[in-house]
Every structure is written in structure tokens, then in C-alpha cells.
TrEMBL record:
The lineage of its organism: Bacteria, Pseudomonadati, Pseudomonadota, Betaproteobacteria, Burkholderiales. This is Glutathione S-transferase. Coiled coil: none annotated. One of its GO terms (molecular function) is transferase activity. CDD domains: GST_N_GTT1_like (cd03046). Gene3D superfamilies: 1.20.1050.10, Glutaredoxin. PROSITE patterns: GST_NTER (PS50404).
Length: 222
């Protein structure tokens, strides 16, 4: 059985979306954000205190983009993987890594210094600079989806899930109106997917059932 520890709309949405695209059985363990402060017992499972945590037997993973790759590769018949013998393999890996290292990272600074820190520690200049950084890096997505419906391999893959989460986070930050036209259309296509919609519904249902708030606590730093 796959077990996913998740906070609403955190990076753990990536593997949740993958699980719903693949329609696999899984158990979703909801945590308040940040678990490090609000669910201390989680530190016994993941000393980093971060989500996602994905476990399956002896497999234990804490990186969301790697989970997308893992779930796609272990269920190749679903067609979300790009294997090493595919000419798009390099592009696929590049998008998977870019999704977190290049696209999500600057957004966490915007979140932290614009929203989560107490007022006296907020840094408006950091918010402006890293918003600009994110939007500049997003030009790579704009160029790719201006030419093709999906990022690589001419079809929807785990790379679209990983990068799609960066667009979801940007939407939460109010940045979606600044997406280029091709990125806007791509983001609409991703949100229209039944797998995306099932993942959204699953996290809200589980949050209510497990008594977890659907928004982060104020003054909590990522
Ligand atoms: N690179 C990791 C980052 C994991 C991460 O930092 N997750 C955030 C939520 S999006 C978290 O759990 N923050 C809580 C904390 O830092 O205490 C990934 O992609 O999964």
C-alpha cells in the first residue's frame, strides 16, 4: 500500500495528483501546515518535518518531483513515464528537476517573506525580486507549450504534473494573470483533467474527515 503524508496544496499535491492520474489505491494522511510545529509526531516519520513523505513497503521518499518519476516509472502502462530510450528522456528529466529546483524554489521565498513571516520580518524587496525571478524562469514553460500541448514527448507525462504544481502555487500567490498566453491555456488544460480534479477533491475530503485546516496557520515559516 502507498501512504502519502500531505498538507493541503503543498508540494505533496504532486504525488497526490499522480496517484489520482494513475488511479492507484493509497492512504492519504493529512497534516496541518507546518507539520514541524503543528504535528510534532510526524518528525518521527520524517525528521525533516516536510511534506510530502511517500512510503511503500521499504521505499521512503521525501522529494515530490522524484515521486512523480517513481510512480510514473513503476506504472509504465499508464503512459505517464518517458523511458531512457525515448528521444524526449533528457527533456523529461530536465522538466522534472526544473519543476522544483527552478520554478518552486523562488516561490517559497515569496511565500515566506510575503505571507508566513510576522509583519516585522516581512521583506517586500525579496517578494518583488523572487516574483520576477519566477516569472522569468517561466519563459521556458511558455516557449515549450506555445509549440506543443504538453511539455515533452508530445503527450501528458509526469513532468506536466510536476511543473503543473508550480503553476498551482503561482495561482495561490496571485501570479496567474502574469502567465503568458500559452501558459494560461496550458494551465487551463491541466486543471480540466479528471485526475487533477480528483486530487483536489481528495485533499479537501480528507482534510475535513481528518479534522485538518485547509489553509496554513498564520505566522508559520516554510
Ligand atoms: N524539495 C522538496 C521540498 C519539500 C518541502 O519543503 N515541503 C514544504 C511544503 S511545500 C514543507 O513541508 N515545509 C514545511 C517546513 O519546512 O517545515 C520537495 O519537492 O518535496
Amino acid at each position: 500500500m502507498l501512504h502519502l503524508h500531505h498538507c493541503v496544496s503543498a508540494r505533496s499535491f504532486r504525488p497526490l495528483w499522480m496517484l489520482e492520474e494513475l488511479q492507484l489505491p493509497y492512504q492519504l494522511h493529512m497534516l496541518p501546515f507546518p507539520p514541524r510545529a503543528l504535528a510534532r509526531s510526524f518528525l518521527e516519520l520524517n525528521p525533516l518535518g516536510t511534506v510530502p513523505l511517500l512510503t511503500q513497503g521499504d521505499v521512503r521518499m521525501t522529494e515530490s518531483a522524484a515521486m512523480c518519476q517513481y510512480l510514473a516509472a513503476t506504472h509504465p502502462d499508464a503512459g505517464l513515464d518517458v523511458p531512457p530510450n525515448d528521444p524526449a528522456y533528457g527533456a523529461y528529466l530536465n522538466w522534472l528537476h526544473m519543476s522544483d529546483a527552478t520554478l518552486t524554489f523562488p516561490q517559497t521565498l515569496v511565500l515566506r517573506y510575503g505571507r508566513f513571516e510576522p509583519a516585522e520580518r516581512q521583506q517586500p524587496q525579496v517578494v518583488v525580486d523572487y516574483t520576477r525571478w519566477f516569472l522569468a524562469r517561466l519563459r521556458a514553460v511558455e516557449a515549450a507549450v506555445a509549440q506543443s500541448e504538453y511539455l515533452c514527448a508530445g503527450r501528458f507525462t509526469a513532468a506536466d504534473v510536476a511543473v503543473g504544481y508550480a503553476l498551482l502555487l503561482a495561482q495561490h500567490l496571485g501570479l496567474a494573470p502574469q502567465f503568458g498566453p500559452a501558459t494560461q491555456a496550458y494551465w487551463q488544460r491541466l486543471q480540466a483533467r479528471p485526475g487533477y480534479q480528483r486530487a483536489m477533491a481528495a485533499q479537501l475530503r480528507a482534510a475535513v474527515e481528518q479534522g485538518v485546516p485547509t489553509t496554513p496557520a498564520p505566522d508559520t515559516r516554510p
